[in-house]
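Teaching note: in complex prediction, the entire set of molecules is handled at once rather than each chain in isolation. The prompt given to students was simply: 'Predict the structure of this complex.' The entities are:
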Amino acid sequence: ELKVEQNPLFLSMQEGKNYTIYCNYSTTSDRLYWYRQDPGKSLESLFVLLSNGAVKQEGRLMASLDTKARLSTLHITAAVHDLSATYFCAVANSGTYKYIFGTGTRLKVLA
Amino acid sequence: NAGVTQTPKFRVLKTGQSMTLLCAQDMNHEYMYWYRQDPGMGLRLIHYSVGEGTTAKGEVPEGYNVSRLKKQNFLLGLESAAPSQTSVYFCASSPWGLTNTEAFFGQGTRLTVV
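The expected output is the structure of the full assembly:
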């Protein structure tokens, strides 16, 4: 059964600092996603990673995928307050068509 | 662009009552999903559908039923609501193409069972 773990669950950081959120999953998967959720809102897609070694960047966020280690990272560079949100990774495989989500990382960027 | 629309947005039920949540998508996606979101537990998959007329169980299907009579609609039913079903429910749809595979989410339904 596919399990997805994220850490940390909570992250409070100063503006301008760098940090990484980790997403581990338990079984072979060929697709990994990162989403952002603002309080009281729906989920917004950030990145889609479809192959080993894939790296995607958008602004201060960069996501990578290592399928051999079953690990994805979301790196935050020089954080700003607007990045405060909850970030989820989700894993899927083309055999089951299910998206399984991690528990989420609540990020708070302090001015 | 409507995308994925959930009805209703908010609902309060008494224990034992029944209700149906409606999810409608206008993107012609084959795959649709129902999740519940609870604090500290992320999103958990309740049921999903890989096409019109099909449904399958997810991680936490107990107490829920679903139907996909039309491709664009996915209904989630609670036959006898319990306080443990208080949650925020999200519907999602996906094309599951070769490269276009992300799931698109509705705005959520906040359900309280008292």
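Point out the following to students. The mean pLDDT of chain A is 93. The two ends of chain A are 41 Å apart (CA to CA).
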